[in-house]
Design goal:
single chain, 487 residues, 18-stranded parallel β-sheet, 39% strand, elongated
């Protein structure tokens, strides 16, 4: 009998020990599902207000966009911050963060910390496995032009910005290649599986660039000698795959704040972009040649487009954005200089625009080619917006236009246009600012250039009558006369 009692006691002890390990870790529940409660964010933005997470983008996975399957939609809105599930119950060892301070960064008194950032990045890149590159809190790190190259990286890098990265104010500290058409301040290039997260700030210190901008001169109608269009984009991600940018502040960009160029599988969330309404060409988030990108739960105040989606972009999902002031959410401009551009499968959902010049806009240059197709603007709230809904196929970014709406000088090919079709405006409500027009469809006279435009449940009050040319929209639940094109 004694051996049986010993065996029974050993079994009870083993069961209790295993239960203690698993409950202490919080990793495996009785139904064998991983616990995610302590990892899930508590709130998300919904039309500018804090609401429970279940009302956020995760619940949008039931919707589909264009020809995408429900499975693809679910993939695009999945929370990127998944819990680590270790079936053994043991916690993995985490290497100490690589701090820029360990390589000589000071973060004080306009000290140039560029070299320290270069050395810290090289160290992180050469490490094996996952690594954290830390920008410590409570300091301002001044950095000149720099490219964080991933060509030689062996690790999965998380760049954790807790302090502030700042550009030098004087444009003379920048050196651009003579033949470069696009200029950059901070660039992440060919970095795979990269995470850049806050809660710190990236500050472009762009005021002096704004003062010398030729575009600013057009706005103020003042003459500033030696104006230029050389201002760099503050932060650019080039050819990065499986990228996450999360919980960061961006301020006073020299030109665009954040640009995604030729990237795939991108999640950008909880970004706060704040710049003067008078700042020229300071797009909040710029997307070009990029596929499968989620932009969500962010607040953007700027002097140009809150979000701009350019040619070569596909499967773009924008949700829960608070925009204003600024120029709204735009697709384009496309087809400039007779070029061919393509944008498809774009969904803009659950956004609020306040005091913006435009709301949701598609803009193409006359004489271009290509298409903008399978586009949905859904559940958008407009408050005091000058032009809430716009399709402009005679777009020009100068003040001088010929009588028929085309740019001067005229396009190289007058009989071509970027085709705009399969566009849905659904559940768009709110108010138009004084002297504004709720709907402007300035479509091209090229046959077939502007087709399958649909409006469902649209009510925009206080604005002028809709202005339409070369288009025949379809309507459902659009009872307000000013929101319908004249017959």
């Amino acid at each position: 009998m004694a051996p049986q009692r010993q065996l029974f006691s050993f079994c009870i002890f083993s069961v209790l020990s295993f239960s203690t390990i698993t409950s202490g870790y919080g990793g495996t529940l009785p139904d064998n599902k991983p616990s995610t409660q302590r990892f899930a964010p508590k709130y998300s933005y919904k039309l500018g207000k804090s609401v429970p997470q279940e009302a956020g983008p995760e619940r949008l996975s039931l919707h589909t966009l264009g020809s995408r399957s429900t499975l693809q939609s679910k993939r695009m809105v999945t929370n990127p911050f998944r819990p680590f599930h270790n079936v053994s119950g043991a916690r993995p060892s985490t290497p100490a963060p690589i701090s820029v301070n360990n390589f000589g960064a000071k973060g004080i008194d306009h000290t140039d910390d560029t070299e320290a950032f270069q050395k810290a990045w090289a160290e992180a890149c050469s490490s094996n496995g996952a690594v954290v590159l830390l920008v410590p809190p409570h300091r301002n790190y001044f950095v000149k032009q720099f490219t964080f190259s991933g060509a030689q990286c062996k690790s999965h890098i998380t760049m954790q910005i807790q302090g502030t990265i700042m550009a030098f104010e004087d444009p003379k500290t920048y050196h651009f290649p003579d033949k470069s058409k696009q200029h950059y301040w901070l660039t992440f290039e060919r970095v795979q599986n990269l995470v850049v997260e806050g809660p710190g700030t990236i500050n472009g210190n762009g005021e002096k660039w704004w003062q010398s901008s030729c575009k600013q001169n057009n706005i103020t109608r003042t003459l500033v000698p030696n104006c230029n269009n050389d201002a760099p984009t503050a932060v650019t991600f080039k050819k990065c795959n499986n990228l996450t940018v999360h919980n960061l502040n961006f301020e006073k960009a020299q030109q665009k704040h954040v640009s995604f160029e030729n990237c795939t599988d991108v999640k950008a969330s909880r970004l706060r972009i704040n710049t003067s309404e008078a700042s020229p060409n300071t797009d909040g988030i710029h997307v070009t040649e990029t596929k499968n990108i989620d932009i969500s739960m962010s607040r953007i105040s700027t002097g140009d487009d809150c979000i701009s989606i350019m040619g070569g972009s596909r499967n773009v999902y924008v949700a829960n954005i608070a925009c204003g002031p600024g120029h709204g959410i735009s697709i384009g401009s496309l087809g400039k200089g007779g070029s061919e551009d393509h944008v498809s499968d774009v969904r803009v959902f659950g956004c609020k625009l306040t005091g913006t010049m435009y709301g949701v806009r598609i803009k193409t240059w006359p004489g271009g080619s290509g298409y903008a197709t399978n586009i949905t603007f859904q559940m958008i709230q407009m408050d005091n917006v000058t032009n809430p809904i716009i399709i402009d196929q005679n777009y020009c970014d100068t003040e001088t236009k010929v009588i028929n709406g085309e740019c001067k000088p005229p396009p190289l090919q007058k009989n071509t246009a970027v085709k705009v079709h399969n566009v849905m405006y659904q559940s768009i409500n709110g108010t138009v600012s004084k002297d504004g027009q709720a709907i402007v469809f300035n479509c091209s006279s090229v046959p077939g250039a502007c087709e399958k435009i649909a409006l469902d449940d649209v009510r925009l009050e206080k604005g002028g009558a809709a202005v339409c040319s070369n288009v025949k929209p379809t309507y459902s639940r659009v009872d307000f006369p000013l929101n319908r094109c004249p017959n």
